[in-house]
Amino acid sequence: MTPRPGHALATAALAALLVGCGGGQGDGDAAPAPSATATAAAPPAQAPAKSVRPLARSVPVGLRIPSIGVDTPVMSLGLASDGTVEVPPVTDDDRAGWYRHSPTPGQVGPSVLLGHVTVGRYGDGVFRHLARLHRGDRIEARLRDGASAGFTVTAVRTVAKADFPTDDVYGDVAGPELRLITCGGPRDGEEYRDNVIVFAELSTTKGA
């Protein structure tokens, strides 16, 4: 099993995971809201298949989420010089980023991808409509080796940044899972108070 990041690393990650999701120029973190809120659950959907074989490690190069019109290249993100997680640059060709210290999509463990909800003067970010996803929606990650990993959404949560569920996002899991993260909720000035987190499980593979 791929080990989860150490607690200190995970704490640093959540502290600056989505610096730049605000409506301004995309730099600076939001003041956290005092309490968490939960997104209402969609009606139950068919559970993802449990017998799908995990994929070999291969860096993600693309991400498709048909129900919200996302089809984006994926860049690799690491840690900044201050130990916080890098975020995609604020540009007019905004794209998602994969946190390279997490498993690749399809490997056992939680693969973490993040993106902006807004990108300053450029308008909407690649994950602008992430909160509209529901249980049962499909996500496809395209991998560098030509394989693809299909995931089924199991939950969508909106939480205050102060209450970021570190263990739920980075903690060990029994199979291949996906986490998509952006900002959301009400705005405090130019910054969003909350994070939107999508949880998904591997349900199909191709070209493996």
From TrEMBL:
Task: Tell me if Hydrolase is a UniProt keyword of this record.
Answer: yes
Question: Cross-referenced InterPro entries, in alphabetical order?
Answer: Sortase (IPR005754), Sortase_dom-sf (IPR023365), Sortase_F (IPR042001)
List, as start-end ranges, the regions of compositional bias called Low complexity. Answer: 28-49
Keywords of the record = Hydrolase
PROSITE patterns listed in its UniProt record? PROKAR_LIPOPROTEIN
Q: Where is this region: Disordered?
A: 26-53
Q: What is this protein called?
A: Class F sortase
What is the native source organism of this protein? Streptomyces ardesiacus
